[in-house]
Each structure stands twice: as structure tokens, then as C-alpha cells.
Amino acid sequence: MPPAGITLASLPKNFRRIRDVSRRSCDNISLGNLLRNTRADEGSLTRAARWLQEQIPVRYARRIEDFLQLPHVVVSNPHFGQVLQTYLETFEAIDNFGSVNDMARVVQFRHLVTKEMSKHGDGTRQIAEGYRQIQHAFPHIKLDDFLQKLFTSRIATRILMENFNGMHEPREGYTGIVSTGMSPLGIVQGLATDIQRLTDSIYGCSPEVEFRGNLDCTLDYIPRHVSYMMQEVLKNALRATTERHQLRTSGVTAARKLPPVIVELQQGDVHVIIKISDQGGGMPKRLQREAWQYGWTTAREDTNSHDASVFLGGCHSQSLKSELAGFGFGLPLTRLHAQYFGGDVFMQNLPGHGTDMYVVLTHLKEGTPSTEMEDLSTLLEKGSFQESSFNKVASIM
Ligand SMILES: Nc1ncnc2c1ncn2[C@@H]1O[C@H](COP(=O)(O)OP(=O)(O)OP(=O)(O)O)[C@@H](O)[C@H]1O
Ligand SMILES: [Mg+2]
User: Is 204 helix (H, G, I), strand (E, B) or coil?
Assistant: First the structure.
């Protein structure tokens, strides 16, 4: 494999092929359709493998073309280069796989898909790190449109590939990748404990997390997505609370004086709404829009600020702190994940007091509007993504 960045000086060798494949149309899949075709018999598996073999390269080819149109200083960043390299490899591996005409080939294809998926595991982190470096050197470069497309496609391709993988081993309580009757409470409780531990190891204390509302609520959803979204909003809430209140108090009494973060769950007919409230001081009005941009963060400033150095004490590693915050990707990616299935994320700020975050998750029951709506990565190609998902949510709030 050439070192990251090498491919960027020139067009990839298979550029013509990439361009041709990117011009092909994508099937407008819905999650409902995907779930209805999620069966473990030989015919279904073969059809799914052939279909994936057509669909995945189109999506990768389009993103590769997007990469190649970025400014040189962006694509020559080693992290961006590394991600582009994995896109090129996956495109080539799947495009060149050859025909799938029996179960042995289906199994080989499954192994290939699993292998390729694992190569993309740290893609988000790589892009976040790369964007941080790019923005540091070239603050005027904004890549929100590129990143929105990249991450929407990433969600789509992972769903397709994971669902195909899951078809081979049906699990109790799951339809494909969708967990039926999943309890968000269990997921949020586990995450809260982990993030409290992380916060404590950085700052020496952490707020309590309290749970209220309809604790028994359930929904059909993809657990990984719920974990991701809740992790991001909880990290933000715990960080804001600790930074605001720890500086105002001192010593061992600090931990007792931190106001709790409240997680409230409510169940609607087609939605579960999770509200996370903190007393971390909120944000000034002028910054509330910027917080949704990729790469916008106050965490880097903190590192240099006098106040922060008082409680960081120089002994807590910066890498630990960057696990809690620092890339400015948490909010935009959380909203993208929720919107992907017709949900949304709203932020209500009381500057000087705190923040309420509303995460609206749509039930992914087969046959409901959220599962039957067109895959957002295809809507996005047509430029109608934001509008359609906002309209959907506006009608339920
Ligand atoms: N609950 C909150 N209270 C106060 N400020 C917040 C809250 N949530 C987000 N913010 C502000 O919005 C910024 C962007 O949040 P976001 O989660 O996107 O990035 P981050 O937390 O800085 O980094 P990361 O990508 O690691 O999550 C934060 O740096 C912080 O200034
Ligand atoms: Mg964050």
C-alpha cells in the first residue's frame, strides 16, 4: 500500500473506472425494504450479495470523486489521504470480486465485506483529526458539505454491509441490524458510567447522571446508533457541567457541588424522545449556530486557557481529554445520525445556566414512514435531504 497521500499527487490508476461507476444510478432503498429482504436462505443471501456488489462501488466511487475535487492542501493531509486510500481499496476489492453464483462465493463475499468494513473502523476519527490539522493551518477552509455527504454515505454503506453480514447469523430480538423492543435506558446507563469515569479521570470529579420519565420505554432501532448519539450528548453535558462548576469550587467539595445531568425518556407513538439537561452554563446565542458546524469546538481553547491549566494540573494527558471533547464533530454527527431515519436533535440553551438537548429517535418498525422513506444518501445526492427530514420532524414537535 502506498504511503498516505501518495495517490493524491495524481489521479488513481483506475480513475476512469471510478468515474464510470460513479455515474451509475443508485437504488433508492428504504430500510423497510432492506429488512423485508433480510432472510438467511441461500436465494436471499445470493441476491443480497449480488445487489451489494452493484450498490457499494457506486457509493464509494462518488465519494472518491468528492475527495479528488478537494483543495490540494486537504487531500495531501495524511489523515484524509489514509481515508481516501481505504475508499480506493474497498472500491477496487468489491468492484473486482467477480461473479457470485453459489454459496461458496457468497461466503467469500461476506468475508471480503467484513474485512473491508474493518478497514474503515477509525475513518471518522481520522477525518476529525485531519480536519483539525487543516483548520489549524488554513482556518478559512470549511468542508461541511463534503463531510455531510461523506458521513451520510458512511452511515448508508455501513448499514448495508452490516445488515448483509447479520443475514448470515439471524439473532433473537433482531431484524437484520435493527434491535426490536430495545430499551434505551440500559444503553444510556452503561454509557453514563463510562463517561463519568472518564470525566473523573480528567478533572478529578464528575456530575451524577439521573434518570427520569418513562424508564420502560422501548423502540426498534440500531443499538450502535443510539450508543453513538447518547455518548456524544452525554460527553458534552458532563464536560460543560464539570468545567463550569469545578472552577467555582475547590478541592474535595467540588464533586458534591456539581449539579446532576438529567436524562429524561419519553415515549410517543412513533418516536422516543431523550432529553439531556445540564447546568453547564449553556452557550452565548451568537455561538449556537456555529456549534453545529464540523470542527467547531471550544475544547482546544480550553487547553491553553489559564483556568483550564489550573485543574488539568499538567498531569492528565491531553489524549485522555481529547476522548471527552476536542474535534467539534459530536453535535453535527449526532444530528446526522438522528436525521438519517427521520428523527432530529434540538438544542435549547439558557446562556449562563445550562443546556437541554432533545434527541428524537424514530421507531424503525417495518412499514412505518421512517423505514419506508428513501435512503438519505440517495436523497442527499439529489440535494433534498435536509428539507425532507426537517419537514418530517417539524410535524411531530
Ligand atoms: N451541553 C453543552 N453545554 C455547553 N456547551 C456545549 C454543550 N454541548 C456542546 N457545547 C459546545 O459546542 C461545541 C461543539 O460540540 P461538539 O460535541 O460538536 O464538539 P466537541 O465536544 O468540542 O468535540 P467532540 O467532537 O470530541 O465531541 C463544544 O466544544 C462546546 O463548546
Ligand atoms: Mg462533543
Answer: coil
Task: Report every protein residue that has its C-beta within 5 angstroms of ion ligand 2.
Answer: 236, 325, 330
What distance in Å separates the CA atoms of residue 264 and residue 261, rounded to the nearest whole number?
A: 10
396, with CB counted inside 10 A (0-12, 13-18, 19+), is middle
**Which residues in the chain show pLDDT less than 70?**
1-10, 247-256, 301-318, 370, 373-397
Specify the ligand 1 atom closest to the Cα of 322: 26
- The predicted pLDDT at position 1 comes to 43
Concatenated DSSP letters of 21-37: HHHSPPP--BHHHHHHT
Find out whether the beta carbon of 237 lies less than 6 Å from any atom of ligand 1.
yes
Tell me yes or no: is domain 178-365 CATH 3.30.565.10: yes
Q: What is the pLDDT of residue 46?
A: 95
Which CATH fold topology does 6-169 show? Butyryl-CoA Dehydrogenase, subunit A; domain 3 (1.20.140)
pTM: predicted TM-score of the whole model, two decimal places: 0.89
